[in-house]
Amino acid sequence: MNHYYTNDPDLEHNEHTFAFELGGHELRFTSDNGVFSKHTIDYGSRVLISAVLDQPALAAGSILDLGCGYGPIGISMAAALPERKIVMSDVNERALALAKRNAAANGVDARCTIVESSVYDAISDQFGVIVTNPPVRAGKAIVSAMISGAKEHLLPGGEIFVVLQKKQGAPSAKKLLAATFGNAEVIKKDSGYYILHATAAQEA
Q: Is 42 helix (H, G, I), strand (E, B) or coil?
């Protein structure tokens, strides 16, 4: 069986192109078989994007969209925050190819870097902001690694934003954030989705 968090180059293509407003911008996306939420922007990503862009100020630095899929979170951030550089990573090669096309189609490709990476394996930089809608179906170990590994990839004072459903482990993820960063909060709840937030320590 194919999963959106794996690679299957032999999977038949069936592309789908649609428009969607995110962060106040009308964006166009092409998706395909074998990627997460093929037919529309999933509700969790919408809640995450809204919560992040509603912040009065975000920590300075580049933004990492960890587990980007075909790119709605990273591309919407690039459209809404033209001064920021965006790195978008995923393990799914088909999703990454679509993310590159979608970034170009929406005119933000000059500020978006697309990286194939399993969790943080190919990520060496540090970021002001990490955003993630983690692949819950990949298992708790992957989700936990995405959360705990963020500490090594945030600049001092940097922030991580995570969307998870309550029933899919948001309370335990909040505890992991608190254990990792010494702080954690739920900044938004919407239809069972929690937006979790933590801040990396400032330099002494």
A: coil
